[in-house]
Amino acid sequence: QVQLVESGGGLVQPGGSLRLSCVVSGSIFRIYRMGWYRQASGKQRELVATITTGSTTNYADSVKGRFTISRDNAKNTVYLQMNSLKPEDTAVYYCNVVLSISTMSPMRGYWGQGTQVTVSS
User: By the 8 A CB rule, do 52 and 32 touch?
Assistant: First the structure.
């Protein structure tokens, strides 16, 4: 069984910063890609940022230069540092991890429960 626990969301003023964390635990053989997605009210879930095992990153155009994704492989944790936040960043942020639970198991994607980020004055 695999669990993803996110933390760090909250209410912040425009221009402020937040740091999200996602800890992965359970039966893990190997973690491949880790990432963050978000879903604003009434909209579809969208990619925010991903990071591979080799630390290659990918960002949505809307967050480039403001958000930074990183990972700590020893702690099975992925982070999202969010700076210069805008009201349009308001959404539920979800952690997503692609991993395998054994040498014989295929890679599979797992989702966290989501953490609310609200940017408002």
Answer: yes
